[in-house]
Amino acid sequence: GDSVTQMEGPVTLSEEAFLTINCTYTATGYPSLFWYVQYPGEGLQLLLKATKADDKGSNKGFEATYRKETTSFHLEKGSVQVSDSAVYFCALRGNTPLVFGKGTRLSVIA
Amino acid sequence: DVKVTQSSRYLVKRTGEKVFLECVQDMDHENMFWYRQDPGLGLRLIYFSYDVKMKEKGDIPEGYSVSREKKERFSLILESASTNQTSMYLCASSFATGKNIQYFGAGTRLSVL
Lengths: 110, 113
What we know:
heterodimer, A: mainly beta, four-stranded antiparallel beta sheet, 12 strands, 51% strand, globular, B: mainly beta
């Protein structure tokens, strides 16, 4: 079945550092791909999405490109802030409801 | 703004109790979902519903049931709560077609003692 694998955390970075969180997927067909973020004490909210190969999703300085050839959707940000501290989930939607990765906790220190 | 409201943020129950977790959305979404979130396991789908009175099992339905009598409300029921059901429960909703973005509630942290 469909599955998502993302890098395990926690990830700790200094403010203004470069962030990459790896995400790879297994799915039949052409799934849509998502990154969700969960800030402390809150539910998940959509960060960005891409619906077809080579699409780039972007929001709040975060970017991810749908790479069909490598079945990947890595999340990147050029300069993280303390306010980016959260748990990040990669997810896909194929023929079933959303399938989530296990989440990566990011802590950004000043 | 889309709003998904879960009735309780924190809940403490005793083993064997019947527990109801309520979720209401205000965007006329067809689809509604219940997940549980546990450290190291991410989000796991318990049940979902594509329409009123319809329900589908997710990945971990054992020990749970659901009810959807009205479009805006989706209830998760623990018939006889057990300690291994201590978890964070998240409700979500989405439109049936289109971009299928799911909107989440803030979660209910349930402790079963």
